[in-house]
What does this fold into?
Amino acid sequence: MPRIAVALQILPAIVLIVYGLVKQKRWQPYFDMLLMTLPAILFYGMLMGNLPILENIWKLFILQNVGITMPMKKLAPNLMVEDVNSTVEFYRDVLGFEFVMGVIEEIQEIVTSYQKDRLRDYAMMKCGDVEIMFQGKRSLTEALPVLRDKEIGGTLTLYMEIEGVQELYGRIKDKVTVVKDLHTTFYGMQEFYVRDCNGYILTFAESA
It folds into this structure.
């Protein structure tokens, strides 16, 4: 193993020693300088020695300093709705989403096939990589009382990048409330905006 790799392996111990001296109010300027150069030293050590220990230290240093403690996996919005059944049918029949699962809280039952008029509490739907959850107002406000005074519809847009935006626009424009017609933006996207059956604004977009 190269000498520099060996030296870098013991670098954490050196840092701890210097930190102990700093706690005794000594060598503060030197410690500050070390902290400033530590990311570059660790990165160089990984390049030169392919050291897994240094790689883990590097990741820990970066994550702690940018305020992230764990990676996020996905985002799936949970929308408060008046009627779960009509919402499922709108997203299925108009937008082409598939029913994934639902919950009937009264009997604590999870269903994986859509059963008309039985769903009052919760449903999850999917189209491609996009997942959206819908929860009835009564159910959601019981779980989160802070939402009791909030109106359904939200001051947000759900932005979905798709393939075939022109075809989708032509197919659904007469079945939905179009908020903004299909257009090309200055940043190179073709987009249009519609309002769903609960008042939420959906954006469909594709690279122009």
User: Anything to note?
Assistant: The chain has three domains: 3-66, 74-151, 153-208. The mean pLDDT is 81. The CA atoms of residues 5 and 49 lie 5 Å apart. The helical segments are 3-9, 11-23, 28-49, 52-66, 84-93, 137-143, 165-172.
